[in-house]
Write a structure and sequence with these properties.
Blueprint lengths: L1 E6 L2 E7 H10 L8 E3 L1 H28 L4 H9 L3 H17 L4 E3 L1
Helix pairs in contact: 1-2, 2-4
Length: 107
């Protein structure tokens, strides 16, 4: 599944389904596709996503500090793209939509 986020304030942002659903849940939304945010709901969703990403980073750092280092696991983690990096285009889209008071939809 492919999910595309759209708003008149920005270009489209497309994710694979698993990443999109994770980010939607971090925004405080359910996994309903298609769906939308009213313009007045964009800022709270943006703040929720930022807070959830900060918790995610803290959790990742705590896990890596508590586990013995496996060189194979370290190499795999370096090759994978962090969720915080993947979230950047959506964060930018939500920021632009909030600034222009524009709704966001995804399908």
């Amino acid at each position: 599944m492919i999910v595309t986020f759209k708003t008149k304030a920005s270009g489209d942002v497309t994710y694979t389904g698993d990443i999109a659903l994770t980010l939607l849940k971090m925004m405080g939304r359910d996994d309903k596709v298609p769906s939308a945010l009213y313009a007045e709901d964009v800022t709270p969703a943006l703040e929720a996503l930022r807070a959830a990403l900060a918790q995610y980073v803290a959790r990742q750092q705590a896990e890596s500090a508590n586990h013995d280092k496996d060189p194979h696991q370290d190499a795999a983690q370096k090759r994978s793209i962090a969720l915080t990096v993947r979230a950047q285009p959506l964060l930018q889209l939500l920021e632009k939509a909030a600034k222009k008071h524009s709704p966001v939809l995804w399908q």
